[in-house]
Design a protein that fits this description.
This protein is of the alpha/beta class. It has 8 helices and 7 strands. It has a single domain, classed as Rossmann fold. It binds zinc ion (ZN).
């Protein structure tokens, strides 16, 4: 099974990726991991990508494509894979189609207001503990007594920005793969187990 996984930040994509990987016995290919491994191994393409990242620039499509391509050619991908974080653009999707067309695009569709509510309720401690105000209302950490705070990543403004960037980026991809009849929409407003059951059920039909 060759799958692309799409889902807004906070929609539980990581959990579903882990379950899909195990269920179908396919590697979970995250673009971030592929980049890090190329950079740490000092490959030519990795160092080239790093030169953009070091300047805070977006890595060009052709570089991203090359990195993913070399990963997909590894032996563990021959029976399928789960792509996470790629493709992000139409040129990337077209390059992937030319290389190895996927079977389906799983789109975890979760209510953005619920995501905002859940993520903005997180409170962190310097020691690494993370709480949620729905289950823990104290101002200090139960473990070390440190004062809890809201990370910048968990602030409403940041979350809303990330969500709208996601929609902007994903809508053209959903349209692109929709035309190929490959998009599988899944209701992300359920428990992780129910989301997964729906994914498997839809992929089998
Ligand atoms: Zn603490």
């Amino acid at each position: 099974m060759k799958i692309i996984l799409l889902g807004a930040p906070g929609a539980g994509k990581g959990t579903q990726a882990a379950k899909l990987k195990e269920y179908y016995n396919i590697p979970h290919i995250s673009t971030g991991d592929a980049f890090r491994s190329n950079i740490s191994q000092g490959t030519e393409i990795g160092l080239y990508a790093k030169s953009f990242m070091d300047k805070g620039l977006l890595v060009p499509d052709e570089v991203v494509i090359k990195i993913v391509e070399s990963r997909l050619k590894e032996a563990d991908c021959k029976d399928g894979f789960l792509l996470d974080g790629f493709p992000r653009t139409i040129p990337q999707a077209e390059a992937l189609d030319a290389l190895i067309p996927v079977d389906c695009v799983v789109n975890i569709d979760a209510d953005h207001e619920k995501i905002v509510k859940r993520l903005t309720g997180r409170r962190s401690c310097k020691c690494g503990e993370v709480y949620h105000i729905s289950t823990y209302s104290a101002a200090n950490c139960a473990k070390c007594g440190g004062e809890l705070y809201t990370r910048d990543d968990d602030k409403e403004e940041t979350i809303r920005k990330r969500l709208s960037a996601f929609v902007e980026q994903t809508a053209p991809l959903v349209e692109y793969y929709g035309k190929q009849g490959k998009v599988v929409n899944v209701n992300g407003n359920q428990s992780p187990d129910s989301v997964f059951a729906e994914v498997v059920n839809k992929l089998q039909s």
